[in-house]
Amino acid sequence: MEKANLATYAKNTWCPGCGNFAILNSIKAVLMALIEEGFPKEKIVIVSGIGCHAKISDYLNVNSFYSLHGRVVPVCEAIKLANPELKVIGFAGDGDTYGEGLEHLIFAAKRNIDINIFIHNNRVYGLTTGQYTPTSPLGFKGRSTPDGTKEPPINPLELMIASHASFIARGYSHGIELLKKIFREAIGHKGFSLVDVLQVCVTYFNMYEYYNSKVYELKDHDPSDYNKALTKIREWDYNNDARIALGVLYKK
Amino acid sequence: MNNISILIAGRAGDGIDKSSLIISRILTQLGYRIYIYRDYPSVIRGGHTFSIIRCSKDKIAAHSDKVDVLLALNQESVDLHKARLSDNSLIIYDSNSVKSDKGMAIPIAEIIKEAKALDLMRNSCIIGAMCKAIGIEKNVLEDVFRAYMPREIDLNLKVAFRGFSEAKEFTRIEKIEQKSLPVIAGSEAISIGLIKAGLKTYIAYPMTPSSGMLHFLAGKAEDFSLKVIHPENEIAVMLMALGFSYAGDRVAVGTSGGGFCLMTEGLSFSAMAELPVVILLGQRPGPSTGLPTYTGQTELNFALSAGHGEFSRFVTAPGDPEEAYYWSAVSLNMAWKYQMPAIILCDKTLNEGIYSFDMGSIKKIDDPGVSLWDGIAEYKRYQNTPSGVSPLAFPSTKDAVVKVNSYEHDEFGVTTEDKNLTIMMEDKRLRKDKYLLEELEGYETVKVYGDKNSSTALLFWGSNKGVCVEAGTKLGLRVVQPIVFSPFPLRQFKEALKGVKKIICVENNAAGQLADFVKRYGINVDERILKYDGRPFSLDELEQKLR
Q1: Alpha-helical segments (H) within A41-153
Q2: B396–A78 C-beta distance less than 8 A
Q3: Which residue in A64, A74, A83 is closest to B396 by CB distance?
Q4: What angle do CA B202, B207, B210 make, to 5 degrees?
Q5: Fewest Cβ atoms closer than 10 Å to its Cβ: which of A14, A36, B137, B391?
Q6: Rounded alpha-carbon distances, angstroms, from residue B65 to B77, B79, B308
Q7: Inter-chain CB proximity A61 and B401 less than 8 Å
Q8: Rounded CA gap, A47 and A119, in Å?
Q9: Which pLDDT score is estimated for B1?
Q10: Does B402 contact A at CB distance below 8 Å?
């Protein structure tokens, strides 16, 4: 089973150009660094849901719990409560955890359990071939909504700050150095952390060009200032044409 | 007189439950075995609620419709329960609020007012009067109050003694020379059985009739170093349980049918991922919300078939607190040995019924042990073995990468769609059934009571044990109780029925689920006695139906 760089023998079946590769490569680099610094590899556990993102459990040669659709968060909480020495990182999709399993996410944030939830937010269902998700923009034409959705997306980060999440960040699958930095900081945070990664699905919702024209890295932002964090979180509501901030938005 | 039945009634919130416990402890002091049937509506305050405390020299677990003493704190209590009285019965009532043309009038409200006591202490007053009426000495009353009254002992005793002096002796209940037994609820027996087998974590979302386990275990969490968690919903309950199981904690969850519906996706996952979990399934009359605070044996079929896909499970239905204790421990042990889900079928009758508990009569429970990774060969979470059971390792074990998966997977736990691997892994999981069944040969999975030579069998399951054994024995029937339903110990079951010509099946449901279940094994039930009004069979009622 052991391969260099925490890889497994499992064949990678993500589409070429998929944003999931950036997440996989970033987390591998972050975990490798942690291990090199002396954190025992056997104390790392990853959890994933169901969807394209979830294959990360097969691709990383660490303890893993390949869960059900929407059910990443309660599993992460339980593993951490059972053995607080473990570093527990949950990978979840937007349909997975902002849709099917949203209740768990709110409660985990409220409980401030020391787990990390990284969302592969491609704003579309990939594995079920292109339906709208809770963060798809208004009017999104998917296979279940051929005339376009009539409901606005939720802003998951605003929901998280309202639910007492103690660490909220946004990443992007283009620009791996920033993503690594954010993951690293989230894993170092003591308490519940959520990183919403704008992870582009090249097949069903290719947003690279759009995101590239909107994203900017947060500079001189004080993430400990709740009101400033809230303003930044509200700047882009996942629907309007605003600038999209990347980095740590809120940290308590 | 050495057998008495006492009914205490009032409004919900009047303290009827606490009073019935005090009465049961008084009777226990005299050497009696007790059973309490509790009847209450799904409301917090108001609504009629009552308990029947029955005591006997021998162990019992059923109530009778006829009562000897009726303790009435309000008018409804007399009006609603008149039919339960015989000419020899006694009503003790609060003459300040109840009108009755016979019985013993005690001015309870006045006594309470004079003593500047709380309204709730009317219970103590009527218990005092009851003691006098059935010939129980004042010192027994005092001992029990001092030991079990949570607060305001002196004031409670004061009004109890006033009740005692106002009453007259009506009959005399004899003291019995035998060791008193502790009085516990079925939910407590289940809980301590789980603790006995090494429970580390209990997770539940409140739902009648399983909240008793949650409350009891939460109260005992510190004493037993337990983690007791009440999360956002039953889906989280089940998935958290699997997370704990993965991390190495012996874990159980508790719910009722509606909550179990939400857990079934996780149940199927527990089978696929081979993560042991024990589920306490408190059945109730359904479908849907049904009668939340009443009883029913409605979920045998559900327990046996819940979850998608095909998989092995361990399903038991204990019948009284001793069996509940024993089979809860065995279920947790078997779940871990065979890495599969275990379901314990219970219901309001068992969970909330109050019984004399005889720990000494319970067989010794041996932990059959768990297969653990030897740390030598490369770790494979789903290593294919002859028994189908793969050695366990938990995260934080050096050199073991522990991968569990809801998808079909290879021995390492990596997802596969390979056809040969699919067959191999499904066979591996299903094979565990056979070994579990072999192991169960060493357990009393089917019990026989009554006249073991009778050619007429009374067949029952679960919480009907008390009433069926008592009525069946009295009528000279062979009384047969299957306890394990999956994997089904057919050999033991057939053995128990050897020579039987007629089978009468007694169940608290409308369909006759046990009767249908045994039919699949070629065993035909001749007569079905079914009750599905949410109430358990009373002794008199069942006897009458069996005659």
Answers
A1: 56-59, 73-82, 94, 102-111
A2: no
A3: A83
A4: 55
A5: A36
A6: 15, 15, 43
A7: yes
A8: 12
A9: 62
A10: yes
Taking the C-alpha atoms of residue A242 and residue B305, their distance in angstroms, rounded to an integer, is 52
Query: Chain B contacts of A43, Cβ < 8 Å?
Result: 395-396
The answer to whether B266 contacts A68, with C-beta atoms less than 8 Å apart, is yes
| Cβ pair B252, B226 in contact under 8 A | no
Closest CA of chain B from A251, distance in Å: 25
The confidence score (pLDDT) of residue A3 equals: 46
Backbone φ and ψ for B22, nearest 5 degrees, come out as -60, -45
**Identity of the residue numbered B379:** Y
Q: Provide the chain A residues 8-47 that lie in CB contact (below 8 A) with chain B.
A: 8-10, 40, 42-43, 45, 47
| Contact of A169 with A243, CB cutoff 8 Å | no
Q: Model confidence over A93-125: pLDDT tens digits?
A: 999 999 999 999 999 999 999 999 999 999 999
Contact A58 B402 (CB under 8 A): no
Judged by DSSP in three states, B352 sits in: helix
B476 φ, ψ (degrees, to nearest 5): 75, 30
| Nearest CB to B395; choose among A68, A74, A86 | A86
Q: How far is B111 from chain A (nearest CA, A)?
A: 50
- State the pTM of this model: 0.97
- CA-to-CA separations, B506 to A216, A218, B536, B544, in angstroms, rounded: 72, 71, 11, 13
- Interface A–B counts its CB contacts (< 8 A) at 124
A6 touches chain B (CB under 8 A): no
- Both structure tokens of A15: 């589409």
Residues B466, B321: Cα–Cα separation, whole Å:
11
Helix axes B138-148, B153-166, angle to 10 degrees: 160
Helices (H), chain A: 20-36, 56-59, 73-82, 94, 102-111, 156-162, 176-188, 208-214, 226-235
Task: Give Cα separations from B335 to A83, B101, B250, B304, B314 (angstroms).
Answer: 21, 59, 9, 15, 7
CA-based nearest residue to B432, from B251, B301, B310:
B310
Q: For residue A177, give every residue at least 6 positions away whose Cβ sits within 8 Å of its Cβ, in sequence order, or none.
A: none
**Among A197, A191, A194, CA closest to A246:** A197
Give per-residue pLDDT as tens, B187-215.
Answer: 999 999 999 999 999 999 999 999 999 99
Rounded CA separation B64/B519 (Å)? 32
ipTM: 0.97
Instruction: Say which of A43, A67, A82 has its CB closest to residue B249.
Output: A82
**Residue B397 with chain A: CB contacts under 8 Å:** 42
